[in-house]
Amino acid sequence: EEPHGAAPVDFLQELPSYQSTRRRRGGTQELGTAGSYGTAARALPKERDKPTVRIAREQPLRMAEKRRIRATEKADTEDLSRWEKWRITSNKSWKKALSEIKDLTSYLVLWQRDIRSIEGKFGAGVQSYFSFLRFLVLLNFIIFIIMFSFVTLPIIISKYGIFNSTVAYMSPKNIDDICTIYEPSTNEGLVYFYTYLNDLLSGTGFLEVTSLFYGYYSIDAVWISIMKYNFPLAYLLATFAYLALSFCWLLKGSVEGFKNHLVHDADPFQSYCNKVFAGWDFCITDPSAARLKYRSLKYELQTDLQEEKLKRKIAERTTKEKQRIYSLRIFINIIVLAVLLGCFYSIYRVTVFSQENSSGADNENSLVNLFVQYLPSVVITAANFIAPLIFSFLIRLEDYTPAFEIKLTLLRCVFLRLASIGVLLLSLWSQIAGCGGDKCKPCGYNYKLYPCWETDVGQEMYKLMIFDFIVILAMALFVDFPRKLLVTHCSCKLVQMFGYKEFEISGNVLEIIYGQTICWIGTFFSPLLPAIATIKYFIIFYIKKIVLIHTCKSAARPIRASSSNFFFLVVLLIGLLLAFVPLAVSIAHIPSSKACGVFRNVNTSWEVIPNVILDKFSKGWQQFLFGIASEAFAVPFFVILCIIVFYVVALARAHKRVIEQLREQLVLESRDKMFLIRKITDAQK
Prior knowledge:
- The protein has 23 helices and five strands.
- It is mainly α.
- It folds into two domains: 112-596 and 607-629, no CATH class; 630-684.
- The strands form two sheets. It has a three-stranded antiparallel β-sheet with strand order 1-2-3.
- A hairpin with a 2-residue loop joins strand 2 (221-224) and strand 3 (227-230).
- Helix 7 packs parallel to helix 18.
- Residues 1-57 are annotated as: Disordered.
């Protein structure tokens, strides 16, 4: 028999959740019995009466209730032993110390105050660009530490005899003497200033024989006391290390950004409610910080409302409007493809012309020779400047949302910039290893034009990075600031029509992704290139900050920061994956230079690893390692990896269904509460 106060079965069956579940199961099946519902009704208060182990600060209570709980907890500790009191006090002190240390470390974060100020004035979308720039400064600095520690530092130690260190050289064996001739164009005697400037901009002359480029590291081993340091192996492993570090770091950030992106896109209304009801930080006491937080929330809400407005507009399109927009998009994409092909062909022809005419004796140390050497960089920069303007104009005609406009424009421009680097390297490889006749027969590559081709490739990457920085600086000095002055002090209608400049997130992000891809590719050929990239991005931060504050206006169409951060990392990850291709070809396919560098005694750079395995490992380990590198291991490993991926995808879908069911359950519980409130109101009447 049911005790007094138990809920009747008929009453429970009137709940909306019960009716909804019954309809889902066919409409005829009864869900439970009187006993089961009575048991559930009796168990519910018991479950609610169970104490939850939560500290007072984390409970959603008023301050008076939290003080009462703390007083109760303090009274309960009076009966404890001295050991227990000391342990509780120590835990609280340790947690407080960790919290204070965490607060102090926040002040040590690079550009933290500047980035928060930018977020408050221009929104979280612009702030995401500067945070991304800070991330690249840190990444390049760590890459520089890796290359300097394992490549450059051993050379410095052996040069000055520190730790009783010496250098070991080995002459190339079974190599034609003509392949070992390498005479860098060093400057001797009285040298004019413009010659030093030419060398500084092109990486030739005195820079060519420094530790900046691959040709400087022409040793085989470093003896530190009685320990032998295998320099070729260290050079190759350091290259793999910085690539693996970059990949893991970017993959980690992309996965975290993908999670946040999924959470936001799954329920936009929930994100909106979080901003309105829980977005304010009540710990803020500084008025300027409060204004920055207010502006940040304002920009985020503007972004949400703008996106909802555009989604409603897209949903109200008629069939005729959809056909017109899709036809226009197809036509525009054909134009984009034609622009890309034209840029690639121009880069290829200019690179071939530059390589064939930049080393002539009549043009040596002249301004014409410098221009010819920089011709590929000039054409690539011109293509990267003109094509994005065309893409930005065309994207406005395609009628996309602001966030998707940035993504599509960024993808098109990324493809242009990264593919232009690929076309440049392809043109160089065609000159290095694709020579016809007997030019490549003695050495396996064009030894006459490229006696140390790794240094030549490093110089091309160096010139691309230097010229990219010069263009960014020139745009700020000769375009952005003059435009600001003209718009401010000139009342001409033509000038006022252009107006103040908006900070283009996609274009600025593209610049640093392009430069970072150059750094990843060029570090193998120029080990100190990450140091130049670190200094470059450090200066660019302040250039862009000054340009943003003094010459730009707030964006008319705000951009969401959460999706931007995730997309920036994904595009940078694509750039890293594309950088793997030329590096893999250079390491495993193209014969290494026999006149310079650490790999002059092997056919390709990759041969260092099999040689070390054969010399240093036992036969058992040799069979094991070569077995891992064989197809017999690779195919089953790939199959197992695919099975694991399918399992993870299936598990993710199952979790997604559970989340959807839990959301439905929350909705039904809210309806049950409304139903019970109406029942109580009717009973009181």
